[in-house]
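Re: beginner question about structure tokens

> Can someone show what the tokenized structure looks like for a real chain? I only ever see the sequence side.

Sure, here's an example I had lying around. Input first:
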Amino acid sequence: MAAVSTLIDRIYRDFLNKPDDLSAFSRLDGAISSTTSTSVVYESGLFSTEEENLLGNGAIVEVGKELMLVTSANTSTRTLTVARGYAGTDAATHLDETNIFINPTFPRKSVYDAVSDNISRLYPSLYNVTTTNVTSSSTYQEVPASTVEVLTSYVQNSTGDQYTSAGIQLLRDFPPSSTNTAVQFYNTSNGKTVHLVVKRKFVRPTDETSDIESVCLVAPEYEQIVMVGAVADIIGATDIDASTQEFITEKLAAESYPVGSGERLRNALLRLRSLLIDEARGNLRSLYPAPVSIMNINYSA
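And the corresponding structure tokens:
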């Protein structure tokens, strides 16, 4: 299991942070709360004199996903007076020894937002496939949240010698179900175990700690699509230097996807994302043909 933070770290490593680009950073010398702390103390020995000179009034420091605006700095006591939650970020609690970065080119909050947007954006081109069992009855049975379609439904016949398609109707936006989604049965005896394969939307993360696969429902083979799309969004909103553009171009070429002569880097990334989605969508279609629907009741193909 991997958290969203892992994907963010991979984006920095693989696309945004050049190997020879050592960002100025130190670490907190003591935890700070989300509400009361306007002073930040950093550890000694990590910022150089030149880097400390950048910490004057108006500098921006980043701790976790929070940006802080420096209003004054005392380098003798290693203390910064800051305005919390700068530029639309949220003031948060930060543990002792959390990294502090000066004037980040690619703020972590921006990368997190781009990853979250691209997870949500995977659907409807792609979708999660979940297998679950329910027991047929005369009333509804709950199915996993974010289910948008039943792909297959099999139930053992009355003689027990074979499985046949169960008549299923999906109930979406259905308040009686705790997951807001349920199925009801037609032409299926009560008390039978029905094996379902369902299509689900991806789930936007609520924090960096959200698990990519179990919470956001993003399979490992889709992570590259999310990363490429996120990087395209980030560089589309940020002026990046020539060396960073060259680094990303070289990374794409190493993956057998060279950027065309005169092509904008963001367009090349979006084109790669489209190709990756087409490939993944083809795999899904071959594995899960569309079910046959008769009078709004699905029967597996």
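Each token stands for a local structural state, so reading them left to right follows the chain. Residues 150 and 198 are 4 Å apart (CA to CA).
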